[in-house]
UniProtKB/TrEMBL annotation:
<keyword id="KW-0808">Transferase</keyword>
<keyword id="KW-0012">Acyltransferase</keyword>
<protein>
    <recommendedName>
        <fullName>Palmitoyltransferase</fullName>
        <ecNumber>2.3.1.225</ecNumber>
    </recommendedName>
</protein>
<feature type="transmembrane region" description="Helical">
    <location>
        <begin position="39"/>
        <end position="62"/>
    </location>
</feature>
<dbReference type="GO" id="GO:0016020">
    <property type="term" value="C:membrane"/>
</dbReference>
<keyword id="KW-0472">Membrane</keyword>
<feature type="transmembrane region" description="Helical">
    <location>
        <begin position="82"/>
        <end position="110"/>
    </location>
</feature>
<keyword id="KW-0812">Transmembrane</keyword>
<dbReference type="InterPro" id="IPR001594">
    <property type="entry name" value="Palmitoyltrfase_DHHC"/>
</dbReference>
<keyword id="KW-1133">Transmembrane helix</keyword>
<dbReference type="GO" id="GO:0019706">
    <property type="term" value="F:protein-cysteine S-palmitoyltransferase activity"/>
</dbReference>
<comment type="similarity">
    <text>Belongs to the DHHC palmitoyltransferase family.</text>
</comment>
<dbReference type="InterPro" id="IPR039859">
    <property type="entry name" value="PFA4/ZDH16/20/ERF2-like"/>
</dbReference>
<feature type="domain" description="Palmitoyltransferase DHHC">
    <location>
        <begin position="13"/>
        <end position="122"/>
    </location>
</feature>
<dbReference type="Pfam" id="PF01529">
    <property type="entry name" value="DHHC"/>
</dbReference>
């Protein structure tokens, strides 16, 4: 069945055909597929990293406040500071876990040459054994391995699909 047809089990949310549709992301209000999977992975990866950084900063802030008997934290009273740190810590931890799981699933799907929909349905492809993980990453991030893979502002260069089709982006 084509991914362009809506069925009761897989509704067509964006009302258009998405090549290698992975899933519909409610956070970016768009379907994630072949042409934007790189940006989704970077989004979840960087959100995961920032959430971990926030947890580390909160830990150092709280330990500094406690070590100086709250004299280094005069903005709010000690109970309010503690409540704010705990609430922000819980939010950061939740984002960290969620984005770490999403990033891990995306890399696993790249490794197994499946989409998120196929992953959750338990489907596997037989073509995975013939493609290395680096080649699979090149289908998502572009054929040139380098720092541009980490930039959300760079478009994949010499983008190669699973069928060895070359895609160029208009500038």
């Amino acid at each position: 069945m084509s991914k362009c047809q809506a069925t009761p089990s897989t509704p067509l949310i964006c009302q258009r055909c998405i090549k290698r549709m992975d899933h519909h992301c409610m956070f970016v209000n768009n379907c994630v597929g072949q042409n934007n999977q790189k940006y989704f992975i970077l989004f979840t990866s960087y959100t995961c990293i920032i959430s971990m950084y926030t947890l580390i900063i909160l830990y150092y802030h709280l330990t500094n406040c406690v070590a100086t008997n709250w004299t280094a934290c005069p903005a709010w009273s000690p109970p309010m500071t503690f409540v704010f740190v705990i609430l922000l810590g819980l939010e950061s931890f939740g984002f960290f876990i969620f984005t770490a799981v999403m990033t891990t699933i995306q890399f696993y799907c790249i490794y197994t040459d499946t989409t998120g929909i196929e992953f959750f349905k338990g489907k596997r492809r037989s073509s995975r054994s013939s493609m290395s993980f680096l080649c699979a990453l090149k289908t998502v991030f572009g054929s040139r391995v380098g720092l541009q893979w980490l930039s959300p502002f760079s478009r994949p260069m010499n983008y190669i699909t699973q069928n060895d089709e070359h895609i160029t982006f208009d500038v």
